[in-house]
């Protein structure tokens, strides 16, 4: 979904309040209820623009693929390719004629379908009718499936020519092993080729009940209007309950290294291990700490040690990706083949030193200013807010999450960061993947090279 280029005055005021930190109740009023069919709804009234953003999120990500990786992703893509009596072209024309926007995607935890429309009639009525039909009655046309399958196979071949993509996929496999998070949401050539229309129909039936959904709404509606919209979005969904909890993620017991030879003058180095889940008690300490370590661009410790001091890499990074179960902590860089080992050692040494010493007070103060100063831009539009509402609803975060965000950032101490990193990350149990020059690897990727 394209971000709203013209945020409403409500969110500008909200952003200023958050930035100043002076009003505990400055955030938007989030209302929440459950539809008759069992979906959870989160709603924020935003009357300043005659628009409404809707995001429907299902517990139907790639972690639910089973043996057919890529199933959730293909199901999401097919939702917009035909529903009810409409073909893909007719659906696209309906939204284009309305000036409305539509998107559908899947990640490891969720399938999300988003819509933006004007609230004037008949535009809104047509948009709601179309979206509710897409959710409840997709046709999964065989010809459209074959077309998307061909496109997906092309995309997977292109991934094999990207060292970053090769490295990231390999690292997820090493970090998560047989856990569902270890599979690539896009699937493999073998699994995508094997997926049938019946697989899509069955996945939709099992994972798209209303009780397995969260509906987020932001726009120029009152509460009764939002209730009616949510009921229409979910009334026709298949019967069923919530998906079972995913299995727990197992920590790595020992370090593991995978070297992949690749026809390139550059080597990509990535390392990681299980990190944290959404709603984790250590979330804010780890979030602020990582901002200092490698999440803040040019001013991070990794950039200072690897780029500024030694010129080993143009860019380097680290980040946590919290999920329903602990998602990964990842760090990485790209460098010349002959510098790869030195750069890897500096990257790991920087992580080890940060775990041992924690941040300085100056580093912590700068990180807090950066995060809290930038937060208003992250909640500046209705589309930003609806994405946050969907996240809050899906992961069961408190409704005051946005209200308290900057206060909780400000409350983080250097001691808390040091303690959280020491408990949650172990440099001696990292999975590492090195994708680079020929002849150094256990296996070969990209361009059909030899081992």
Summarize the structure.
The chain contains 16 helices and 14 strands. It has 451 residues and is of the alpha+beta class.
Which secondary structure elements does this structure contain, and how are they paired or packed?
Blueprint: H1 9-20, E1 31-34, E2 40-45, E3 51-58, H2 71-79, E4 82-83, E5 86-87, H3 88-98, E6 101-106, E7 111-118, H4 123-136, H5 142-159, H6 163-176, H7 189-194, H8 197-207, E8 213-219, H9 223-234, E9 256-261, E10 266-274, H10 283-295, H11 301-308, E11 316-320, E12 328-336, H12 340-357, H13 361-378, H14 382-395, H15 401-411, H16 414-424, E13 431-436, E14 443-444
Parallel strand pairs: 2-8, 9-13, 9-14
Antiparallel strand pairs: 1-2, 3-7, 3-8, 4-5, 6-7, 10-12, 10-13, 11-12
Helix pairs in contact: 1-13, 2-8, 3-4, 4-9, 10-13, 10-16, 11-12, 12-16, 13-15
């Amino acid at each position: 979904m394209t971000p709203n280029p013209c945020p409403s005055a409500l969110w500008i005021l909200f952003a200023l309040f958050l930035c100043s930190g002076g009003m505990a109740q400055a955030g938007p009023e989030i209302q929440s209820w459950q539809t008759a069919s069992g979906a959870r709804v989160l709603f924020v009234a935003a009357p300043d623009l005659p628009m409404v953003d809707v995001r429907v999120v299902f517990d139907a990500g790639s972690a639910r693929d089973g043996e057919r990786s890529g199933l959730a992703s293909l199901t999401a893509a097919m939702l917009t390719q035909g529903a009810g009596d409409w073909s893909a072209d007719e659906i696209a024309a309906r939204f284009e004629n309305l000036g409305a926007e539509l998107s559908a995607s899947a990640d490891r935890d969720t399938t999300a379908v988003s819509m933006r429309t004007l609230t004037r009639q008949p535009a809104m009525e047509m948009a709601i009718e179309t979206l509710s039909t897409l959710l409840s009655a997709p046709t999964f046309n065989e010809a459209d499936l074959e077309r998307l399958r061909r496109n997906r196979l092309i995309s997977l071949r292109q991934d094999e020519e990207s060292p970053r993509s090769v490295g990231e996929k390999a690292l997820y496999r090493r970090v998560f092993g047989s856990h569902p998070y270890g599979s690539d949401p896009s699937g493999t050539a073998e699994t995508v080729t094997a997926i049938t229309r019946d697989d899509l129909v069955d996945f939709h039936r099992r994972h798209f009940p209303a009780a397995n959904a969260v509906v987020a709404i932001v726009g120029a509606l009152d509460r009764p209007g939002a209730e009616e919209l949510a009921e229409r979005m979910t009334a026709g969904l298949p019967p069923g309950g919530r998906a079972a909890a995913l299995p727990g993620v197992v920590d790595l017991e020992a370090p593991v290294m995978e070297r992949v030879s690749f026809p390139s003058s550059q080597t990509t180095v990535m390392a990681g291990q299980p990190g944290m889940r959404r709603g984790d008690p250590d979330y804010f300490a780890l979030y602020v700490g990582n901002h200092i370590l490698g999440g803040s661009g040019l001013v991070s410790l990794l950039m200072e040690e690897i780029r500024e001091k030694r010129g080993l890499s143009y860019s380097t990074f680290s980040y946590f990706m919290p999920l329903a179960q602990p998602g990964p902590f990842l760090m990485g860089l790209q460098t010349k083949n002959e510098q790869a080992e030195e750069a890897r050692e500096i990257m790991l040494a920087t992580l080890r030193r940060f775990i041992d010493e924690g941040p300085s007070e100056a580093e912590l103060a700068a990180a807090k200013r950066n995060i809290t100063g930038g937060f208003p831009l992250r909640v500046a539009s209705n589309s930003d807010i609806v994405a946050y509402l969907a996240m809050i609803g899906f992961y069961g975060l408190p409704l005051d999450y946005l209200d308290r965000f900057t206060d909780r950032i400000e409350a983080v101490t250097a001691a808390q960061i040091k303690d959280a990193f020491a408990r949650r990350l172990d440099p001696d149990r990292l999975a590492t993947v090195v994708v680079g020059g020929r002849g150094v690897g256990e296996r070969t990727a990209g361009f059909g090279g030899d081992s």
